[in-house]
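Students often ask why we bother encoding 3D structure as a string. The short answer is that it lets us treat folding as translation between two languages. Here is a chain of 197 residues written in the first language.
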Amino acid sequence: MEKIIVIGSNSFSGAYFVDYALEQSLDVIGISRSSEPHSVFLPYKERTGAHFRFFQCDLNSDLSKIMKIVEDFRPDYIVYFAAQGMVAESWQNPEHWFQTNIVATIKFHDHLRKCDFLNKYVHVSTPEVYSTCEGVVKENTNYNPSTPYAVSRAATDMSLMSFQRAYNFPVAFTRAANVYGPGQQLYRIIPRTILFF
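And here it is in the second language, the structure alphabet:
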């Protein structure tokens, strides 16, 4: 059975990815800085007999604990959904976004690069690194971040690219735009529109 760790497993996308991984009969560990929310936000809670364990850990303060989990579990894959989001709010205290999305995350990557058992690290990034986009954006488009959030994500992406070149770190990037679906947090635009219609 292949093993996977999902960092940010309580996020909307992370929770659905956990559900997908369990559907594929993978052995899954979820890690998030917050405790698990109500099961309505966690589609995988409906699965019985699934191989899933959850750990509440924060990259900023629990890196050694996270690495102990990684080293004991020896996952084939790690998928990272854990960045601090909320674009507009990143202007209020940009240092919080830089601390989580750059400093803590790059420390995590520096430990992961030494894990010879890791087949793939999937870094869920954002098209915000390119600034405002329309239509199809090529992956080699120049970065042009325009918010503290986007700057923090671009910096980490570039750091990972340097790790890939220097250490052959097995990273793959995704940059999904706005995602939505059942169980999404009620403050997001589509649930709010439905509630106030």
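Translate back mentally: The chain has a mean pLDDT of 92. Keep this in mind for the problem set.
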